[in-house]
Structures are given as C-alpha cells and as structure tokens.
Amino acid sequence: MKGQDNPLSDTKKRIIEVAGKVFAESGFRNATVREICKLASVNIAAINYHFGDKKGLYLAALKHLRTVSFEQYPLDAGSDTSSPPEERLKAFIMQFIKRIHGCREGESPWLRMMIIRELMEPTEGLDVIVGEIVRPTFGALSAIIRELLGKQVSEKTIRLCCGSVIGQTFFFFYAQPIREKLFPADRSSTSETKVIADHITSFSLNAIKSYAVPKKGR
Amino acid sequence: MKGQDNPLSDTKKRIIEVAGKVFAESGFRNATVREICKLASVNIAAINYHFGDKKGLYLAALKHLRTVSFEQYPLDAGSDTSSPPEERLKAFIMQFIKRIHGCREGESPWLRMMIIRELMEPTEGLDVIVGEIVRPTFGALSAIIRELLGKQVSEKTIRLCCGSVIGQTFFFFYAQPIREKLFPADRSSTSETKVIADHITSFSLNAIKSYAVPKKGR
Amino acid sequence: MKGQDNPLSDTKKRIIEVAGKVFAESGFRNATVREICKLASVNIAAINYHFGDKKGLYLAALKHLRTVSFEQYPLDAGSDTSSPPEERLKAFIMQFIKRIHGCREGESPWLRMMIIRELMEPTEGLDVIVGEIVRPTFGALSAIIRELLGKQVSEKTIRLCCGSVIGQTFFFFYAQPIREKLFPADRSSTSETKVIADHITSFSLNAIKSYAVPKKGR
Amino acid sequence: MKGQDNPLSDTKKRIIEVAGKVFAESGFRNATVREICKLASVNIAAINYHFGDKKGLYLAALKHLRTVSFEQYPLDAGSDTSSPPEERLKAFIMQFIKRIHGCREGESPWLRMMIIRELMEPTEGLDVIVGEIVRPTFGALSAIIRELLGKQVSEKTIRLCCGSVIGQTFFFFYAQPIREKLFPADRSSTSETKVIADHITSFSLNAIKSYAVPKKGR
DNA sequence: AATGAATGAGCCTTCATTCAT
DNA sequence: GATGAATGAAGGCTCATTCAT
User: At what angle do helices A33-40 and A10-30 cross, to 10 degrees?
Assistant: First the structure.
C-alpha cells in the first residue's frame, strides 16, 4: 500500500535526500559517494545504477532541494498582488529568508550552501540554480520594486536595487559565522531572524523611496 | 637573529605567493601541493619542511594575502577624518571593493575567495580573517555610520547598517557569475564597478539618512 | 519435444548473434554483458537465465559463428575431388580465406578473431575450435597436399606443409594492421585479397612441388 | 658500488620487468597495476610516480622487451653480408624465431605475445612495434629475398615473399596450442624448433627460387 | 636547506552476478 | 520467461605525507 503515488523508489529517494545534505555540507568534490551510500544504507554501485555517476546524483539532489524548498515556501505567500508594494516587499524578504536560509530551528540551510558552492566553483548545477531559482525570485522582487519606484526608472536601477535587497539577506545569514565571532550577542535565533528581516525591509524601503522621490517632487 | 636581511628565504616567499593564488582559486581541498610546488619550482618535500603540512602553508598564504591587501589598499585612503561622513562612506565603499574584490583588470579576488571559503568550512584561518581583516573594517565603517546616524542610535542599529552596506558589496561581486548569466549586459568591467560603487553609496546613504531623520524631527 | 518449430527462442537467438559480434570485436573480457544486452534489447538478467553466465554465452556464440561460417563457406566448394590437386589447392586457399577472414566489404572477421583470442588465452572454446573447425580444415588440406607430394612423403612433412600454407594466410590477414602501416599501398580490398590468394597459391605450389621432385628423379 | 652505470633505479627496473611479463600474459586491459606492483613489491602509487599511468608503464615495458630482445638476438648474427643469400635466409629465420618466439627452455615468448595483442587491439604500442621491430626486420629480410630473386622482380613480389616467410614462422609458434592438440607428437622442444626452422627455410627457398627461375630461362 | 623516491589511504567507476517479483 | 533493482568485488588513479640522502 505504501508509495502508491510515489514515483521515486524508496532507495532512490533516500539516496537523494542524504546526498542533498552531504553535498551541501561538503561540496561536490569533497563529498564522497561512499559516505552518501553509507548514510543511505545502499551499495555504492547504486549511484551508478540510479544516477549514472556522481555528477548525476549531484544534479538530482540539487533539483530535489529546489523542489522541496519551493513547495514549502512559495514565493507569493503572505501577501497577494493587491497588497501595497511595501507590504509585499516585507513578505518577500521574510519568505526569501525562509526559503534560502531555512527558518526552523536545526534546519540546515542546504539550498543556500549549494548556491554558494556553485558560485565558488560553478558546475552544470549553476544553470539549474540560475534558471529555476534565481530568475523567478528576481522576477518577483523586480515587480515589487518597479511598483515602488514608478515606471520612469530604468531597468538597470531596478536591477541594482534588487541586488541591494538580496545582497543584504545573503550577507546576514551567510556571514553568520563571522557575525557571531564579532558580536556574540547577535547569535542566530528566531527572534534575531525577525529583527534582521525587519531591518532589511525598512533599510531597503527607505533607500528605494528616496530613489523614487525625485520624480514626484521633494 | 638569523636572516636579518632575509626574513623569508626566497624559496619560502615564492611558495607563499604561489600558494595564495592557488588556494584562492581552487580552495583548500582542491588545491594540490604538487601544483603549488610545480608553479613555485620547488621540490614537493619543501612544503613539509617549511610549513609542516598543507594547512600550515594555507595559513601562511592567507596571512600573506592580508598583509599585501592592507598595504596596497589602506582603509583610510581617499579621505580623512575631517571630511564629511557622506564623503568618507563613499571612499570607504570604493576602497573596500578594491581591497576585497580586486580592481585591476585580470586581478583575481583572492582575499574575497579565501573569506568565502572560510565561511563555508571554517578552519583556523577564520580567526585570522575576523581578527585582522573584518574587525578593523567594521570598526572603520561603524565610525562613519555612527557619525551619520547620530549618537542616540543604538549600537545594534549601527551593526545592522554596517551589515547592509557590506552585504551589498559582497553580493554584487560575489554573485557575479549569476548576475552575468541573468543579465549579460552587466558584465564586469572597471566602469561597471564604478556604477555599482555609486549605487551602493547612494542606496545606503538614502537608507541611513532616513533612519537618522526621526531623531531630529519629522 | 517443446520448441519443435522454434528450437531457439527469438530472444536467445538475438542474444547469440549480437554476442558473436561483440565477443569477436572486443574479446571475452573486454566485452560486457551490458552492451550485448543493450544491443539485443533484452534485460541484463536474461544472460544468466539462458546461458548461465558470461562464459556460457561466449561458448554458445562461438558455436553459432562456426555453424554460420561453415554453412556459408563449405570447404569443398569451388572444386571436386576429381579436379587436379593444383586446382583444388587454389580453391581451398580462396575458400579458407573467405571463411576465416571474411570476404565481403565491411564484414568483420569474427571467426578469425575468436580463434586468435583463444590462442592467446585458451578456454573451453579452444576445444570447440580445434575439433570442429581446425581438424576438418587440416584434413581437407592434408588430402590435397598428400596428393601433390605423393605417398612416399612422411606425414610429418605433410603436416609441416599444411602449416606453411595456413600460416601464410593467417599472416597476411591477421597482420593487416602492421602491413598497412608499413606499406600503405597494400591496403585491404577485394582485389588485394585476390592478389594475396594467388601469391600464396603459387608460392606454396612451387615449394611443395620442389619437395616432391626428389622422389621422382632430378 | 652497485649500479654505477645503471640509469634505471632498481625499483623502476623491477617494475618494468614484471610489467613485461604480466602485460604479455594478460594483455593491456586484463593486466592490473595492482598485480604488477604486488609482484614487484612496490606500492601501487609508484606506477604513477615513475610512468604516469598504466599506459606509460605499458609502453615502457614494451620498449624494454624490444631492447632486451634486440641485444640478445641481433638480426645479423650467424652470417655476414658476404655469405650466399641461401645461408643468410637460413640464419635469419633461426634468429627471428629466437628473437620473437624465445628459444631457451622455459623462456616465455613475451615479445610475440605483445605483438599479437597489439594486432588484436591496437594501441600506441603498435607504432613502437612497427617502427622499431617490424620495419628493421622486414628490411633485413627484404634484402636477402631481393638478392635471391634478382633485381627485375617487383617490390610488391618481394613484400609478398617476406610475408610468406614471416607468416610461416608466426604460425608454427603462435598456433602451438592448436598444433599440440591436433598432433601431440609435435610437442614444442628445442629439436622440434630446429625441424620447423629447417622446414620453413627449405620450403621458402624452394618457393622463392621458382619465382626467380623465369628470369633466367626455363 | 633541499631533493627524488616511495608509501598508504582513499576516491569514482565498472562489471558480472543475483534477488524478488 | 522475463524484469528492474541491488550487490560486492575490483580496478585505475590521485593525493598528502614521509623517508633516506
């Protein structure tokens, strides 16, 4: 009775889930198929059978991570297109943080780690990340910022503002190890995450609105 | 007392310089001592003799990179403490970009790559980075932002604003591979670097000034 | 009594035919059951089911190759026992070349390759080759040479002459890769095959007749 | 004091000698570097260090085999250019047999096995074999046969006769396993080798002289 | 201070075979 | 009869490290 709507065999699914963790934590090269197979309790030859080779497994794991992340944290949650853009920006930032950096206690930010590793040593996985993760995210953010800035503003300016927003979120979570060493008080926690999200929201809104002011007067 | 006019043997110096490039470009694990020795034209056993092991060489190379970077791009260049804070923020951002991300054409952003790698897989090198690179940088930026915001603002707010500024610079350069795939027009170049630096400066100034307003009126 | 009109299941037959090609071209070890199964469009477990293991399939393929070869190129074709022995030797050499080395353009000399491989690393297949291929061939050739030499000549001499004839044919075709590298002009072709067959015939006839002469006078 | 004129380290030499045997007996693919290293009592990584990879070792072993074989059995031994061609052909055949097939009891015919394997599955080694082994051998034999046939005979005819001579020697020794199965009396031995060499010599001389006759009369 | 040689551990991959259905 | 999934045993190669000089 099990698995009646499960297109992935148990073994294959188990391997993919383990691989997601291991690849995120160790990177493509450092991760070993041996470790993955051991953790998944399968024979090492199973990788070749199900995924062809290590790279095939890596791409499968990356795509799986994306799928799960998008299902858990859809981009348009928490607001709808009729909401004012300020509110939608706030919702976007919170959702983006949850999706990319994880939010539940103990949940490891695998997707973010995969993205960062791909930026250091790009593989075919970068195309997956850009095409299926970054592009739709940028699209959603662009729409909000375009509405905040008004139609007269150039696309280039919108791109730059998108980068400023995304860049802030990346930094606060990605550079967490440094921040904790510098300021032990800012230890990661659910409430600290909310503080950061609020800061990014207001910092960005303030900046963007100033950009937009010239067109309306001042 | 030995080596009074030769604190580093030529061999050792040569190895360190090569290692800096190779470690930055390939990461700790992927870099091979064989390649480093070949490029430095030294015997493979020299690493063990001079640095103990691969990790010892890595730390030596990291420290060397920091020294060179700080000598080439001192933090306070381009302005002095008597300048208005807006101007000093602008100078800081430009200098930070040059130091961390490189500025000359073809120059590899070794220091940034080392930092990013340490963030993914912290080693002893992270202490070096935090203590000798990040802390003074944050200190300088904090001073500028504190002056912009006024004394009434909490240290926490200042830290958050520092993060927002640094985060933006990191993103634009670190995520360069993604940005190029998404927007081929924004290819990296000296002029594009200037555009980005100006954007970060005005975006941040706008945001910070808005933060500061409430205290003086509104 | 089953399979009265289907002694070999289609699947089994298909596998054998594919295996003959693959084993001849790649040798026993280098050939993979996976490739054979893929080319034959059968499941990989079918080999185990039908033939026990890889070696069983190999032997089956070898026997099939022999059967086909003998059906296509019967030994006594092109002449009959009433013909003069010179003519029969000529016919034998041509037929032997066709059978062992192939004659049609693009036809791979599978049987020869199998024989050569068995000579390098004898398996049970060598018994099949000796008993069902070599022995009748040697018998036919012996009869011709015996007639050419006369009854007084020892069996040992006949055996040596048989070896000389067979040896020449083997060399010219088997060492083809070397001959082409040494003398690019002697590239393999239908006409070149005929030139070689004629040479072997006259060379051998000349030699054998000289052998025979002493007995009749001089 | 040892090895004062020994350009090869003991280890390297040991590996090459073992590799020659193993590659000849098992072929390039079937031979394993693990077995070679075990027999040579060296670490498996020594192959990478000294020869780059398996193929490098293979080529080194092949060249070593050639060198040893040529030093032990120089082509022009047993006769000089002033001898009559009949005598020189006899000497050539005996020497060729010794060189390629081995002559001492228990001596394995490694060089022949290597050649045969290269003919089945050519690698870069075939170029070595053709260039450094086959070409000079054919050159020496050609000279003898040209003298036997006279200048009027075409180069093509000389090539064909060379092939006939070489082909016979190959067959008798290469097909030894079959010959022993067919005619147990013809077991390999020093005296049998002499019988074969004499047969090939007279068989070939008879044939070649008949070729040459037309030019002088008949 | 420096070197060439050697080592052992580990990695990815491939293959024939077998199991459960 | 036939299949997809799974297994264990090797195999070639790479790497950091160490040894003897």
Answer: 150
Three-class SS of B49-111: HHHCCHHHHHHHHHHHHHHHHHHHCCCCCCCCCCCCHHHHHHHHHHHHHHHHHCCCCCCCCHH
Report whether B111 contacts B66 (CB < 8 A). Answer: yes
> How far: A60 CA to F1 C1' (Å)?
35
pLDDT in tens, C171-211: 998 888 889 889 999 998 889 999 999 999 999 999 999 87
Q: Where are the domains of chain A?
A: 10-67, 73-209
The answer to whether the CB of D188 falls within 8 A of the CB of D69 is no
User: Which tens digits make up the pLDDT trace of A173-216?
Assistant: 888 888 988 899 999 888 999 999 999 999 999 999 987 755 44
How far is A72 from A94, CA to CA, in rounded Å?
13
C-beta separation of A198 from B157 below 8 A: no
Topology match between the domains A10-67 and A73-209: no
Count of beta carbons in the 10 Å neighbourhood of residue A13 = 15
CA of A166 to C1' of E6 (A): 52
The answer to whether the beta carbon of residue D11 comes closer than 7 angstroms to any atom of strand E is yes
Tokens 């729409």, located at residue: A143
Distances (CA, A) of A50 to A16, A27, A186, C46, C48: 10, 21, 44, 20, 22
Residue A143 near residue A92 (C-beta atoms within 8 A): no
User: So what CATH class is A10-67?
Assistant: mainly alpha
- What CATH class has B73-209? mainly alpha
Q: Which of residues 14-73 of D touch strand E (CB under 7 A)?
A: 42-46, 49-50
Q: Strand E: which positions are within 7 A of a protein CB? A: 1-20
